[in-house]
Automatic annotation (TrEMBL), chain A:
The keyword rRNA-binding does not apply. Pfam families: ABC2_membrane_2. One of its GO terms (molecular function) is ABC-type transporter activity. Keywords: Membrane, Transmembrane, Transmembrane helix. The lineage of its organism: Archaea, Methanobacteriati, Methanobacteriota, Stenosarchaea group, Halobacteria. This is ABC-2 type transport system permease protein.
TrEMBL record, chain B:
Belongs to the ABC transporter superfamily. InterPro entries: AAA+_ATPase, ABC_transporter-like_ATP-bd, ABC_transporter-like_CS, DrrA1/2-like_C, P-loop_NTPase. CDD domains: ABC_DR_subfamily_A (cd03230). PANTHER family: ABC TRANSPORTER, ATP-BINDING PROTEIN. Residues 32-257 form the ABC transporter domain. Keywords: ATP-binding, Nucleotide-binding, Transport. It comes from the Archaea. It holds the Pfam family DrrA1-3_C. The lineage of its organism: Archaea, Methanobacteriati, Methanobacteriota, Stenosarchaea group, Halobacteria. One of its GO terms (molecular function) is ATP hydrolysis activity. This is ABC-2 type transport system ATP-binding protein. It comes from Halobaculum gomorrense. Residues 347-357 have a biased composition (Low complexity). Residues 334-357 are annotated as: Disordered.
């Protein structure tokens, strides 16, 4: 299949890049440091869920670093080949432009699975020999959810990369997207939460303040990830029924969890489709 | 079905006949058909109203100086760029709507490409095989294009010539019906260029149509059935090599040294029967004409009040003819910088001129 051929080639190409090697080393190092910090005292053991649910892993590591890695690895996926001319080699072969875009998403998402998997598994296995009681199912599930998050950001970056015509624009776009989704979103949400949380929604909106906050949280892929990953780690994913006290793990309604998954799936598809729409019309 | 040929160098009278007749229909199948194709980038017209047909099984040389619109045309065949107007058909399919199907049967050596620096030569060929959904021996292909010994090295470390060979190898994967080669000899040493011609020949013998571009006539002369010459986005000549030779056969180039010649003087020369082009830089007048028109040329100049100091004649070579077509220098009034017609100095190439037919 054409998409598969492109994805395979792209994966082979990307895993050989020094960037990916460096990021893998960096990620292993960081996870190791975090595991060291949240390690239990002598004689005690903690479950992996406590590790994964900790603020350090969830907020500091995964939702800030994974988007960054994904954007760095993918921002030039299409436009980089367009600038060097290797895209001509790719499109001289019987691939459609949509094969190229979606093959790139798959290839780069696969390439990122390397640092993510190695980064999580290596320190975890080391720790499991010592004081960590490894819940292997929870752990693997968490890695898969992290890969869903990284894939969403790869899709965003590849979509952008397909839409623009120069590497400079792609770098600018990647930096902008990172700031939008990671620091800026949080910065905007905080004052909004104070305002909307106290019932102060603007009257012209058909949504209540809390609904608006929920929507904002869902819209950001890292927000959706926090919802599903938090529920997964506390083993309440799709199990909480209608209990809908917002805020803590195990407290989201199932509908919210489904919405979060749907949102991540939308991020996987919509940006590449938009990028493809621009790419299809472009003279190379 | 393709006919196969023992020899690519054929005389023109043998050319299109019985080449790729379809069943009993008697109609020739066109491998490439451009109909009224124009491509504009903003104000710049890269290709203007191009009509061109290349028959199946033919080896077609697409000539012209850099910037004449050759690569733009090739990019339209491959759907890298889309025509502003006109239709492009390749292998009897719409080049845009059915591009993937076209490229499945086409091998391409594009211009301005880059290889995947981090992947080995073998990986490149394997990727081409997987993309075209054919099984094959990557090693054998690398052997054929002469870089088997570098099969497992990163292509980023390849020289320009080795990259060219590698991409040619990718193009040959799956025995394509059509080969599109954009400046295939660039980056190759003379021995490499010769190997390239041999590969073109053997592909044509197999029955493939070969469409390749070049800015050097010498490279294509020996392998082409027909050539087309592009200049400033237009096809200015389309003929067999033999036809071109015949066209140039009766012509001579007359270089007249004068005291001073103006455009009006040259205009008088151009008006003569048997003169195909004339140009002057003030001190010399260069005329392409039939040999029996020489005395009239000298006479016309003297009648116009120009003092003729000396003149020499030389038979125009194929290369001169090519340059005349390609750069449109034949009927150009020189601006004092060049030596005359057919030498292709920049001042003449850019001028707006009529092209001798």
């Amino acid at each position: 299949m054409s998409v598969e051929a492109v994805a395979r080639k792209d994966f082979q190409d990307a895993v050989r890049s020094r960037w990916l090697l460096g990021l893998t080393a960096f990620f292993v190092l960081l996870v190791s440091v975090v595991v060291y910090f949240v390690r239990p005292g002598p004689g005690q053991t903690i479950p992996t869920s406590a590790l994964l649910g900790s603020f350090l892993v969830r907020d500091a590591l995964v939702t800030t670093l994974i988007p960054l890695i994904a954007l760095v690895v993918s921002y030039n996926a299409v436009v980089g080949e367009r600038e060097t001319g290797s895209l001509k080699l790719l499109l001289a072969l019987p691939h459609s432009r949509s094969d190229v875009v979606f093959g790139k998403v798959a290839g780069r998402a696969g390439a990122i699975a390397v640092p993510v998997s190695v980064g999580f598994l290596l320190p975890a296995l080391v720790a499991a020999i010592g004081p960590l009681s490894l819940q292997i199912g929870t752990f693997l599930g968490y890695i898969l959810l992290t890969l869903l998050l990284s894939s969403a950001f790869v899709a965003i970056a590849v979509g952008f990369s397909a839409a623009v015509s120069s590497n400079r624009l792609a770098i600018g776009g990647a930096v902008g997207l990172y700031f939008l989704f990671v620091p800026l979103w949080g910065a905007i949400q905080f004052p909004l939460r104070l305002y909307l949380g106290t019932g102060g929604a603007p009257g012209w909106l058909p949504l209540s303040g809390t609904e608006l906050l929920r929507l904002l949280r869902l819209l950001n892929p890292t927000g959706s990830f926090k919802i599903v990953a938090g529920e997964w780690v506390s083993t309440t994913l799709f199990a909480a029924g209608q209990a809908s006290v917002e805020g803590g793990a195990g407290q989201y309604a199932t509908a919210m969890e489904i919405a979060a998954f749907a949102m991540l799936a939308a991020w996987l598809l919509v940006p590449p489709l938009l990028g493809l729409w621009r790419f299809e019309g472009a003279d190379l | 079905m393709h006919a196969s040929y023992g020899n690519v160098c054929r005389l023109p009278h043998e050319l299109p006949k019985s080449k790729a007749e379809t069943g009993g229909s008697g109609r020739y199948m066109a491998a490439i058909e451009l109909d009224g194709v124009t491509k504009r980038y903003g104000d710049v017209t890269a290709v203007r109203d191009l009509n061109l047909a290349v028959e199946e099984g033919e080896v077609f040389g697409f000539l012209g100086p850099n910037g004449a619109g050759k690569s733009t045309t090739i990019n339209m065949l491959l759907d890298f760029v889309r025509p502003t107007s006109g239709t492009v058909r390749v292998l009897s399919r719409d080049a845009q709507a059915e591009s993937v199907a076209v490229r499945r049967r086409t091998g391409v050596l594009p211009e301005g490409y880059d290889v995947y620096e981090r992947l080995s030569g073998r990986k490149h060929i394997e990727f081409a095989m997987r993309s075209k959904e054919v099984d094959g021996d990557a090693e054998a292909m690398l052997e054929r294009v002469g870089i088997a010994d570098a099969a497992d090295r990163r292509a980023g470390g390849y020289s320009k010539g080795m990259r060219q060979r590698l991409v040619l190898g990718m193009a040959l994967v799956g025995d394509p019906d059509l080969l599109i080669l954009d400046e295939p000899s660039s980056g190759l040493d003379p021995a490499g260029a010769k190997e390239m011609r041999e590969i073109v020949r053997s592909e044509a013998d197999r029955g493939a149509t070969v469409f390749f571009s070049s800015h050097v006539l010498g490279q294509v002369e020996s392998v082409c059935d027909r050539v087309g010459i592009m200049r400033e986005g237009e096809l200015v000549a389309e003929d067999s090599i033999e036809g071109l030779r015949e066209a140039v056969g009766g012509e001579e180039q007359l270089v007249v040294t004068v005291d001073a010649a103006s455009e009006e003087d040259v205009e008088a020369v151009r008006a003569l029967a048997g003169v195909s082009s004339a140009a002057t830089d003030g001190g010399t007048v260069t005329v392409s004409c039939e040999s029996d028109a020489k005395t009239q040329v000298i006479g016309a100049l003297e009648d116009a009040g120009v003092t003729v100091k000396d003149f020499t004649t030389q038979e125009a070579s194929l290369e001169d003819l090519f340059l005349t077509y390609a750069e449109g220098a034949g009927a150009v009034t020189g601006t004092g910088t060049g030596a005359g017609a057919g030498r292709g100095d920049d001042s003449t190439a850019a001028a707006d001129t009529e092209v001798p037919e």
